[in-house]
Design brief:
The chain contains nine helices and twelve strands. By secondary structure, the protein is an alpha+beta fold. The longest helix is centred in the first third of the chain and has 34 residues. It binds dinuclear copper ion (CUA). The site of dinuclear copper ion (CUA) has 9 residues, from loops.
């Protein structure tokens, strides 16, 4: 009798272990094959993604173990016809089992936390020759400020970084809580009024990546976006020099092109056309007022005020506070003039 019982009990355990191993292997393979994250554009991204891979290795078998025991128990210990009135078997504790199921998760958690701490320590470590960038969040735009030794800081609402040049961001908010996040860099931090938060990254890949706000901050939260351009050190130097000498005009030198500023931001500013309809520019978004209606017949002073002080007069049917209030800061005088001239010429025509 004793021998037979032993065999009966061992069979499901062997069955569970074999199926658990197969399911875990499939789960881990699928987990590692799926592209969970955007491109890795910083050295930090590589460490963070390794940590996630390790979590997949560990968490899939845990999930499979729990599910197999649950499913086995449902099948094996279910109530059969005629057992409705019966009590379940009296169960007493198993000290050995309790020690195992307390110690094992504790060991796994301590090991994972230790590895996560090592990763965090590594990605937050100070780097030689860090460049400082001040990041300011406000409803609903980002301003990036590059302090210049002995001169006025360069301001932009597009983020430009040089590849392999370590950066430290100093993040502030002017109004409510925002969150400065470049998913391709994997790091993010809240921008909190009255506080200065910081983090470091080292860009490792050329390209343009989205900058997003990751904290619900009001009606314009979803449009509080910008771009992070990782360029070569030489291109970064040229960009900085160009921004430093606004008299020389936009990227191409000479007078900035109002239409280019409007449609694609000309590499310097958030494009107006991503929120506004304007027939001449061929844009058709309705986040903000249709400028063919709102600016028709208006003079240059009105148009200029609409850009730098957007909340002074709100077109009917639109909320105040949606359009960023930082264009007076982030557009150069020439760029502003070019936009005003362009809009005065084409709006409503
Ligand atoms: Cu700023 Cu959401």
């Amino acid at each position: 009798m004793g021998k037979q019982r032993g065999r009966q009990e061992r069979t499901p355990v062997v069955w569970m272990v074999v199926h658990g191993l197969i399911a875990s292997a499939f789960g881990i393979a699928a987990g590692l094959a799926i592209d969970w994250f955007p491109e890795q554009a910083s050295t930090q991204a590589e460490s963070v993604d390794h940590l996630y891979d390790l979590l997949i290795w560990v968490s899939v078998p845990v999930f499979v173990t729990v599910m197999i025991i649950v499913l086995f128990s449902v099948q094996h210990f279910r109530m059969r016809p005629g057992e409705e009135q019966l009590d379940g078997p009296p169960i007493h504790g198993s000290t050995r089992l309790e020690i195992i199921w307390t110690a094992l998760p504790a060991i796994i958690l301590v090991a994972l936390c230790s590895y996560a701490w090592v990763v965090l320590n590594d990605i937050e470590a100070a780097q030689p020759d860090e460049m400082r960038v001040n990041v300011t969040g406000q409803q609903f735009a980002w301003t990036f400020e590059y302090p210049q030794p002995g001169g006025k800081p360069v301001k932009s609402n597009q983020l430009y970084l040089a590849k392999s040049q370590p950066v430290r961001f100093f993040v502030k908010a002017l109004d409510v809580i925002h969150d400065f996040w470049v998913p391709a860099f994997r790091m993010k931090v809240d921008a909190v009024p009255g506080l200065e938060t910081k983090y470091r990254i080292t860009p490792s890949r050329l390209g343009t990546y989205p900058v997003v706000c990751a904290e619900l901050c009001g009606l314009g939260h979803s449009v509080m976006r910008s771009s992070a351009h990782v360029v070569t050190p030489a291109a970064f130097k040229a960009w900085l020099a160009d921004r430093n000498a606004p008299a020389a005009g936009g990227a191409g030198g000479g007078t900035p092109d109002g239409k280019a500023l409007f449609t694609d931001g000309n590499g310097t500013a958030t494009a107006c056309g991503s929120c506004h309809t304007l027939a001449d520019a061929g844009t058709a978004s309705s986040t903000g007022p249709d400028l063919d209606e709102a600016l028709a017949g208006k003079d240059a002073a009105f148009i200029r005020d609409s850009i730098v002080k957007p909340d002074d007069e709100i077109a009917s049917g639109f909320q105040d506070g949606i359009m960023p209030k930082n264009y007076g800061d982030t557009l150069s005088q020439d760029e502003l003039d070019a936009l005003v001239t362009y809009l005065g010429k084409v709006a409503g025509k």
